[in-house]
């Protein structure tokens, strides 16, 4: 496989660059328009750093009206637009192209209202995920979806990707926690979908917009659910001699009617990497580690843990280590949540994100190992065990183009494997450019054409994040 | 009146293709139990899912169940119950309220996004629906989502189809995420509270760490003389003991509630879920969706315009079931005007066909959204053969 293709920049747009910038400058404050090359540079990629394209210009509006004016202008001028939150997409969802204007929502970062009685918060799209929880935690509330990137990533980006996190086994992903959005459409019209009530009228446009990867419009505000935190939470480490046993224990826990708030899996290479970074006290003499978190009062947590430990023992658990303090608990999660960063300290890596039926876990772990070894590379696995969302980290050296290509190929083989066993290409990171050309493995032409016709309802001319999600060939307008 | 009953998806595709040519629109039917939902439509033919029945996949350890669209809901529920599991969203049964007979189907539960009291905690049907197969208006079999719950691959057509009431396509298979059924369920009942106080109680409980799974209020005269405010806890038995104690303490201001278990608790929630208190009357019945604390405001505004209106609250106050004299227009104008300043919306659930033909059953949408809705309909069903006009006139 060769590198991911970008569309050839439209020379007529490049030729009009000055004119386009002049037009934009009439719509937003000077500080909101970025045109100098060195200032555009930070926007040339996201967390899929192997790919970069310098955009035509970057606009950072402060209001919905500004977003509307800029979108309308770009729509009229036929200029592609790439919506951007914090640029932490691992799928290349926010990577621009040379003939595109980036519209970033990072300046729209205010929390507008909090309503505890109705358990909702209204926020601007550029607010970070963690800031929402930060704002309401003193009252004992939190915003449930918790991607590991939560310190940096924005609610707008979370909506774009329908992001998940370690605790979504119990609390769901972004789509289950957003009640309304303010959406700016390509023609500059501003629509309100949903709100503080639970069900919006008509077709579920909100459900369509969440996870649409910036292809249907730009979200400027959102109404999200905030939930009351449990009385306490306790992560516990379970070390298993084999991955199979860990997988069986997960199935048995669910089979016994227990839904822990989180069940995270790490294999031996991941344990070693994360322990070296976070010093969380992870056991080093096991092949697989489960972090299982339970919630409730102390007595409730004791009771639930007793049930879980009994099940784990039936499946040969070797070590059980409870967090004895808030600090220990934090260290356990720090290790897991910094898995990507910690891996990045020892090697370059690409992070895959397929989902598999959990019953296929032992088979898939074995096959993944074979695939990656077949390319002469190493893999570390961290993933959400309860829902089968895998994050194999394929380690390689990015200065070696041959190895880089091998890593990408191994990743693609793994994603195909996920689809083969009944799963999907992406569980939470999105398709972006990364998995765009694999879409035909999961969907047949009719499936894809139906999606593209729906997309075209919002963007007939394919101007919104145009090089993402759907293969560049065979595009359908309406 | 032609009735098509395909037994395979391929047959369904062929039927749809043949209909495109003739231009005769189709109604879609599962068990006919919700035949009176939506705007009154004029169709000569019905495409039924009755020939597409059976569980296609059930993996308890993966918490997933799939079934052909015409599978009776009861069969799905019984299959899950055998393994101690359940659908998370407690779908309502419309038969009592609408006075219909027949067997509700799982496909129609998806098509109608039909959820009950548990929705306040566990999400709606659309939140648990993870995969669909459907025949679109071009006669193509398409899929979206799948059998794994974490899936963000491509546009989420699953959500779009959930709640589209058959207007986008004929579902042939649906896949839901499921949950373990709780070990024990109890209902706490406070009596004699005003609407406003009751919704305050429900908000306090839903904002507590003790996780009520359902929260409703039946005002005075609705099913009993005294007003009743209900909270339902579901959990392991020892947790129920602890959490009910804590909740009662937290809400002690409102007196000591009665505690119901077993059939007494179950029956009460069936009344709420199925709006059985409005069964068999001549009134028009609406569902109002509002922010929970706006529930009592909405009903007060409506009562001021419509003496004789009756109501109760589910979803902590956020879902108002409202019964009004049917009149000529089911009081649509008065109800929607009362809701306008609050920002919620109203759906007409039960009314004579003539009224459902005359007034918008679903809340009219702002212009750009109506345009998008029409475009989406067109993208699935260019010839306009599925349930034309069921949700919105001309769509
Ligand atoms: C005697 C008779 C009287 C009728 N009277 C009315 C009336 O007063 N008002 C009216 O609006 N309609 C009426 N209809 C049409 C009726 O609504 C349709 O036959 C059917 O769509 C209703 O579905 P249901 O109740 O059988 O399915 P349910 O199984 O209850 O379906 C409810 C909803 O789900 C949709 N649905 C069901 N199965 C599928 C599927 N597999 N894929 C996609 N969508 C699905 C339906 O379109 C419907 O919107 C009548 C039909 C008959 C035969
Ligand atoms: C270390 C690390 C850990 C991560 N862990 C997780 C994890 O645990 N779970 C997970 O799900 N993801 C994870 N991610 C991926 C990433 O953080 C998420 O996809 C996140 O939601 C992206 O948010 P963002 O603000 O950075 O959006 P961006 O990367 O800027 O954009 C993401 C997509 O959304 C679109 N978009 C952005 N803003 C808007 C808007 N306002 N309106 C419309 N479209 C918009 C963009 O066009 C793009 O397609 C991780 C990433 C990193 C680097």
Account of the 3D structure:
The complex is a heterodimer of chains A (478) and B (395). Chain A is an alpha+beta fold and 478 residues long. Chain A is 35% helix and 19% strand. In chain A, the strands form 4 sheets. In chain A, strands 15-12-14-13-17-18-16 form a 7-stranded antiparallel β-sheet, with helices on both faces. Chain A has a 5-stranded antiparallel β-sheet with strand order 5-6-10-8-9. In chain A, strands 1-2-4-3 form a 4-stranded mixed β-sheet, covered by helices on one side. The model of chain A has no long low-confidence stretch (mean pLDDT 94). By secondary structure, chain B is α+β, with helices and mostly antiparallel strands. Helices cover 31% and strands 24% of the residues of chain B. Chain B has a 5-stranded antiparallel β-sheet with strand order 4-5-9-7-8. The two termini of chain B are 22 Å apart. In chain B, 57% of the residues are buried. The model of chain B has no long low-confidence stretch (mean pLDDT 94). Chains A and B meet through strand 9, helix 8, helix 9, helix 11 and helix 17 of A and strand 8, helix 7, strand 10, helix 8 and helix 9 of B. Bound molecules: flavin-adenine dinucleotide (2 copies).
Largest sheet of chain A: 7 strands, antiparallel
Mean pLDDT of chain A: 94
User: Got a strand count of chain A?
Assistant: 18
From the structure provided, what is the oligomeric state, counting identical versus distinct chains? heterodimer
| Spatial gap, N to C terminus of chain A | 31 Å
What class, by secondary structure content of chain B? Answer: alpha+beta
Distance from first to last alpha carbon of chain B: 22 Å
Strand content of chain A is: 15-25%
**Net shape of chain A:** globular
Q: Helix/strand/pairing class of chain A, anyone?
A: alpha+beta
The percent range for strand residues of chain B is 15-25%
For the biggest sheet of chain B, the summary is:
5 strands, antiparallel
- The residue-averaged pLDDT of chain B reads 94
Question: Could you give the order of strands across the largest sheet of chain A?
Answer: 15-12-14-13-17-18-16
What is the gyration radius of chain A calculated from CA atoms?
Answer: 23 Å
Give the largest interface: A-B, 93 and 82 residues
The unreliable regions of chain A are: none
Shape of chain B: globular
Number of strands of chain B: 18
């Amino acid at each position: 496989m060769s590198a991911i293709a970008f569309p050839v920049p439209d020379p007529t747009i490049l030729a009009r660059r000055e004119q386009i910038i002049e037009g934009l400058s009439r719509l937003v404050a000077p500080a909101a328009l970025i045109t100098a090359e060195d200032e555009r540079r930070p926007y040339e990629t996201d967390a899929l750093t192997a790919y970069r394209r310098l955009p035509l210009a970057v606009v950072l509006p402060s209001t919905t009206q500004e977003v509307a004016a800029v979108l309308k202008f770009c729509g009229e001028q036929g200029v592609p637009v790439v919506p951007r939150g914090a640029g932490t997409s691992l799928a290349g969802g926010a990577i621009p192209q040379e003939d595109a204007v980036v519209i970033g929502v990072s300046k729209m970062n205010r929390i507008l209202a909090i309503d505890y009685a109705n358990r909702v918060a209204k926020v601007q799209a550029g607010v970070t995920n963690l800031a929402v929880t930060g704002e309401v935690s003193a009252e004992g509330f939190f915003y449930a979806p918790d991607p590991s990137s939560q310190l940096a990533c924005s609610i707008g980006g979370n909506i774009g990707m329908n992001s998940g996190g370690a605790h979504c086994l119990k609390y769901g992903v972004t789509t289950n926690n957003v009640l309304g959005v303010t959406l700016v459409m390509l023609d500059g019209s501003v629509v309100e979908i949903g709100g503080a009530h639970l069900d919006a009228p008509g077709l579920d446009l909100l459900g369509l917009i969440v996870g649409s990867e910036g292809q249907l419009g730009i979200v400027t505000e959102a109404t999200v659910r905030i939930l009351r935190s449990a009385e306490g939470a306790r992560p516990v480490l379970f070390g298993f001699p084999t991955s199979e046993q860990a997988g069986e224990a997960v199935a048995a826990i669910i089979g016994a009617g227990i839904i822990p708030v989180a069940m995270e899996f790490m294999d031996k290479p991941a344990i070693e990497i994360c322990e070296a970074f976070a010093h969380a006290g992870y056991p080093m003499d096991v092949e697989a580690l489960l972090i299982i978190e339970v919630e409730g009062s102390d007595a409730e947590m004791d009771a639930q843990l007793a049930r879980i430990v009994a099940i784990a023992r039936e499946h040969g658990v070797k070590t059980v280590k409870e967090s004895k303090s808030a600090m220990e608990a934090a260290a356990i999660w720090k290790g897991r949540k910094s898995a990507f960063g910690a891996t990045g300290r020892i090697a370059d890596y690409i992070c895959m994100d397929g989902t598999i039926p959990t019953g296929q876990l032992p088979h898939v772990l074995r096959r993944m190992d074979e695939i990656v070894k077949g390319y002469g590379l190493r893999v570390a696995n961290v993933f959400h065990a309860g829902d089968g969302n895998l994050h194999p980290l394929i380690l390689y050296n990015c200065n070696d183009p041959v190895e880089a290509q091998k890593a990408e190929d191994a990743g693609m083989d793994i994603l195909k494997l996920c689809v083969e066993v009944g799963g999907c290409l992406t569980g939470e990171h999105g398709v972006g450019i990364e998995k765009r050309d694999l879409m035909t493995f999961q969907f047949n032409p009719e499936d894809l054409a139906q999606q593209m016709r729906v997309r075209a309802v919002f963007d007939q001319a394919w101007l919104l994040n145009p090089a993402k999600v759907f293969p560049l060939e065979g595009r359908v307008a309406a | 009146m032609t009735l098509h009953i395909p037994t395979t998806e391929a047959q369904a595709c062929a039927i749809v293709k043949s209909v495109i040519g003739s231009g005769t629109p189709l109604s879609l039917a599962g068990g006919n139990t919700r035949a009176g939902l939506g705007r009154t439509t004029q169709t000569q033919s019905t495409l039924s899912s009755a020939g597409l029945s059976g569980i296609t996949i059930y993996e308890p350890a993966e918490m997933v169940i799939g079934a052909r669209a015409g599978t009776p809901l009861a069969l799905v529920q019984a299959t899950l119950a055998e393994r101690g599991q359940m659908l998370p969203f407690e779908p309502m049964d419309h038969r009592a309220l609408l006075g219909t007979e027949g067997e509700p189907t799982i496909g129609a539960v998806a098509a109608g996004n039909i959820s009950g009291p548990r929705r306040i905690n566990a999400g709606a049907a659309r939140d648990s629906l993870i995969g669909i197969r459907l025949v679109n208006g071009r006669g193509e079999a398409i899929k979206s989502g799948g059998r794994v719950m974490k899936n963000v691959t491509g546009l989420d057509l699953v959500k779009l189809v959930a709640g589209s009431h058959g207007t986008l396509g004929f579902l042939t298979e649906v896949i839901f995420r499921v949950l373990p059924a709780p070990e024990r369920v109890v209902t706490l009942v406070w009596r004699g509270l005003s609407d406003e106080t009751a919704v305050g109680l429900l908000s306090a409980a839903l904002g507590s760490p003790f996780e009520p799974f359902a929260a409703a209020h039946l005002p005075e005269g609705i099913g009993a003389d005294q007003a009743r405010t209900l909270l339902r806890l579901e959990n392991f038995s020892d947790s129920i003991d602890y959490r009910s104690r804590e909740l009662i303490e937290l809400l002690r201001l409102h007196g000591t509630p009665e505690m119901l278990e077993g059939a007494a608790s179950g029956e009460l929630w069936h009344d709420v879920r199925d709006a059985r208190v409005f069964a068999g009357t001549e009134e028009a019945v609406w569902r109002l969706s509002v922010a929970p604390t706006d529930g009592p405001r909405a009903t007060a505004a409506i009562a001021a315009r419509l003496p004789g209106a009756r109501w109760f609250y589910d979803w902590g106050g956020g879902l108002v079931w409202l019964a009004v004299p049917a009149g000529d227009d089911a009081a649509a104008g008065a109800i929607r005007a009362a809701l306008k300043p609050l920002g919620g919306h109203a759906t007409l659930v039960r009314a004579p066909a003539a009224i459902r033909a005359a007034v918008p059953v679903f809340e009219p949408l702002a212009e750009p959204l109506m345009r998008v809705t029409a475009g989406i309909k067109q993208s699935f069903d260019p010839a306009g053969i599925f349930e034309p006009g069921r949700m919105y006139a001309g769509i």
